[in-house]
Amino acid sequence: MDSTEFYDRTGEYVAVLIPQVWRELGPALGKTLAGLDATAGALVDVGAGTGVGTATLAAVFPGAEIVAVEPHPGLRTALLARIVDDEDLARRVTVLAADVAHAQLPERVAGLIAMNVLGHLSAGERREFWALLAEKLTPDGRAVVTIAPPTRPEPVPEAPVARARIGRLRYTGSASAEPAGPDAVTWRMSYAVSDGDRRVAELSALDHWTVFTPGQMADELAPLGLRTAPVDGPHGLHVITRR
Ligand SMILES: C[S@@+](CC[C@H](N)C(=O)[O-])C[C@H]1O[C@@H](n2cnc3c(N)ncnc32)[C@H](O)[C@@H]1O
């Protein structure tokens, strides 16, 4: 499912607002990956966006080789800017300009994260992704993915998602969703930039998002010899390992 147009319009807001999401998500991800042997293979960040998760991986696993896969040129520019500005990241993070189906992933993957990404894949693309994971994951490797509600095509009332202040300007984002067929919703993301009481900019954009339940994911993974378990906490983290 192509999200290019959505991120063409919203990339700037994603860059500004997603770090707030990561303030709690980052430590939760770090805990979920604790004890992983990152010398057994590379660590992969699928749909790395602006690279908050990539930098989190790098901090949790000093010295590990990391591959960040990011198809969108705007978000990838932010990702590369983050990496090139840090000697340690520049030495060990490789950025692949492709979607996950077309990226030249490393042979052996010790750890993989796909955070806030899987809804961009159609059900068929998701199954191809599981097959790739089953092929590459090392015996004691771990993948961590997020599944956020809704997990079925249901309406979601509008609610704020994040806010940030940069200089004089305040950025806010809110989201709502409507069902879009048997296994998808359309998210409406609304962003605003304000200078005090004055609205400087506002934007709404629609994003097609495939939904699935944790049970569905378990059923898709089982024939590939992979199993999944939810991680405690409010972040929708699920860990995938070999049986
Ligand atoms: C909501 S953003 C999340 C970014 C990042 N994972 C984070 O949490 O900060 C979703 C990302 O998935 C990427 N994406 C969309 N389709 C993809 C695909 N088929 N393969 C890899 N990445 C994809 C988008 O370009 C975007 O960077």
In short:
InterPro entries: Methyltransf_12, SAM-dependent_MTases_sf. With 243 residues, the chain is α/β, with parallel strands linked by helices. It is 33% helix and 36% strand.
Describe the fold and architecture.
Pfam families: Methyltransf_12 (PF08242). The protein has 6 helices and 11 strands. It has 243 residues and is of the alpha/beta class. The protein folds into 2 domains: 177 residues, Rossmann fold (3-Layer(aba) Sandwich); 55 residues, S-adenosyl-L-methionine-dependent methyltransferases, CATH 2.20.130.10. A 7-stranded mixed β-sheet has the order 3-2-1-4-5-11-10, with helices on both faces. It has a 4-stranded antiparallel β-sheet with strand order 6-7-8-9, with helices on one face. Helix 2 links the parallel strand 1 and strand 2. Helix 1 runs parallel beside helix 2. The two termini are 30 Å apart. The protein binds S-adenosylmethionine. S-adenosylmethionine (SAM) binds next to helix 1 and helix 2.
